[in-house]
Amino acid sequence: MPQIQLTPAERREQRANAHHLDPVVLIGGDGLTPAVKKEIDAALNAHGLIKVRVFNDDRVARELMYQELTAELNAAPIQHIGKLLVLWRPQPVKERTVDEDRMPGPRDVKVLKYSKRGGQRPEIKQLRVLGNQRLTSGGQIKRAKPKQKSIKKRQAD
């Protein structure tokens, strides 16, 4: 697979984005094993921009690992500084299946009810609001009303 080519401005932007990241894959004394390559590939699919730490003192070996990773995983080399390698690959588009019958699930809500007499602690209630219900400003649960149709649309049906 061909290696991704980035302009210097794009590479600089990716370096800035990677600055705060922690390494997600650590390469130990065994070097680039197939399991390590698989983990790096999975991390690139999940995150897009990753840091890899190599526990190897030989700079030439680290540079070879860097080149091998970018070539085999179709990733763009962003930065090689010390024992850190920064790689980037665009994330694949995740397909989402739309389930039209699916309704929003229940959610738990905490409601504070203040006492009418001042100085007392507010009462904390844990309420479960279902998908067809709503919570009013007074802390009551009401069933959601169906959306009103206009007269013309009702007559057309």
From TrEMBL:
Q: Which UniProt keywords apply?
A: RNA-binding
Q: Which PROSITE patterns match?
A: CRM (PS51295)
Region spans: Disordered: 133-157
Spell out the SUPFAM superfamilies in the cross-references.
Answer: YhbY-like (SSF75471)
Bias (Basic residues): 142-157
Which InterPro entries does the entry mention? RNA-binding_CRM, RNA-binding_domain, YhbY-like_sf
Q: What is this protein called?
A: YhbY family RNA-binding protein
Q: Which organism is it from?
A: Acidovorax benzenivorans
